[in-house]
Write a structure and sequence with these properties.
There is one protein chain. This protein has 347 residues and is α+β, with helices and mostly antiparallel strands. The protein has 2 domains: 233 residues, Aminopeptidase; 90 residues, Beta Barrel (Elongation Factor Tu (Ef-tu), domain 3). Helices cover 28% and strands 26% of the residues. Strand 14, helix 7 and strand 15 form a beta-alpha-beta unit. Helix 1 packs antiparallel against helix 5, helix 5 crosses helix 9 and helix 7 packs across helix 9. The radius of gyration is 21 Å and the shape is globular.
């Protein structure tokens, strides 16, 4: 029987628009898929999707976040130019000229982020990194037309990036952080025969402070939490060796410590043993960089044991990232083997 969760699902997840706090389209798709794959699905008050598969053994929560970095309307001037603030961590250097989708309630509107061209800027201006407050989205519509479409302060925007297959094993698209994790949870759910009592959580608002994961963990009350992410692969020109956080095709990236959490030592040791037994490559992420839903999760209630894993991805938090499908496959195998370990020996 052909798998339902395949590269087409990854493409669909990548191309759906879901900036932090506006994950509705992604949530709708994941709920539909998770129900088809046999999970008992509910949506909590924050908008997290929680899918449960009853089983024996310890209670394990797998979590990936649905949201992506985006923009939010802060003002519309009389000419119809849309000014914005960030939803999540953007490098402003990436924004000028970027095609955006304005997620108006009545219909999506195409636009581009405009700024003065080099013909009418001074040499000094061209050397400066633009401030976000100097940039705007131009849809070609006037203010009245935008108002009729429902655009207002608070309307979100997302990059208009199409998913592309670069080669047999490499793909390019937006929002791999963390639609790659969302995809892997669906794959693991489809595999079935889960050795643990497993809850799958697709969380909201991770990119604006990891807000969804903590309440979800309180609701699930798991014995173990595995956070499934995409992280920075910096194996490209201009990055000194000692600053390369991870590399594509060097294995699943395992967090030792980030800005919000020191990874659970027992789970980390167990995972490294599993990787060795299964002959799967792993790479330890350089400490102190980034954060995940594990940060607030491990501090909820009386505390939860949590370990973040990630797929190495070039150019996260940008309009287009690049990912190797073999890294996805390897991470899926590692998580599946880790579930068996937690069910049989614990951590």
């Amino acid at each position: 029987m052909a798998r339902k969760v395949d590269i087409g699902v990854l493409q669909r997840l990548s191309e759906l628009n879901g900036p932090a706090g506006f994950e509705g389209a992604v949530r709708e798709y994941i709920v539909e898929m998770a129900k088809e794959l046999g999970a008992e699905v509910e949506i909590d008050k924050l908008g997290n999707v929680i899918g449960h598969v009853k089983g024996k053994g310890p209670k394990v929560m797998l979590i990936a976040h649905m949201d992506e970095v985006g923009l939010i309307t802060s003002d519309i001037d009389d000419g119809g130019f849309i000014y914005f603030s960030n939803l999540g961590g953007w490098d402003t250097r990436l924004l000028p000229g970027l095609e955006m989708t304005v997620m108006a309630p009545k219909r999506n509107l195409p636009g581009t982020i405009g700024m003065k061209p080099p013909h009418i800027t001074s040499p000094e201006e061209r050397k400066k990194v633009p401030e976000m407050t100097d940039l705007f989205v131009d849809t070609g519509l006037d203010k009245a037309a935008l108002t009729r479409a429902g655009v207002r302060v608070g309307t979100p925007m997302a990059p208009s990036t199409s998913f592309r297959r670069l080669s047999q094993k490499r793909v390019m698209g937006k929002a791999f952080d963390d639609r790659a994790g969302c995809y892997l949870l669906l794959r693991l759910l489809e595999d079935g025969n889960l050795p643990c009592d497993t809850t799958f959580v697709w969380s909201v608002q991770e990119e604006v402070g990891a807000r969804g994961g903590g309440p979800a963990a309180t609701r699930v009350d798991p014995d173990y939490v595995i956070v499934v992410e995409a992280t920075i692969a910096a194996d490209f020109p201009g990055v000194p060796r000692q600053k390369i956080i991870s590399r594509m095709r060097a294995g699943t990236v395992v967090t030792v410590m980030d800005r919000m959490q020191v990874a659970d030592a027992g789970m980390l040791d167990a995972l490294l043993e599993v990787a060795k037994e299964e002959k799967l490559k792993v790479q330890l992420k350089k400490p102190g960089i980034g954060a995940t839903d594990a940060g607030p999760i491990h501090l909820r209630g009386t505390g939860y044991r949590a370990l973040p894993l990630a797929v190495p991805t070039r150019y996260i938090h940008s309009p287009a990232g690049i990912m190797d499908l073999r890294d996805l496959e390897s991470t899926e195998r590692l998580i599946a083997a880790m579930l068996v370990r937690l069910a049989t020996k614990g951590a």
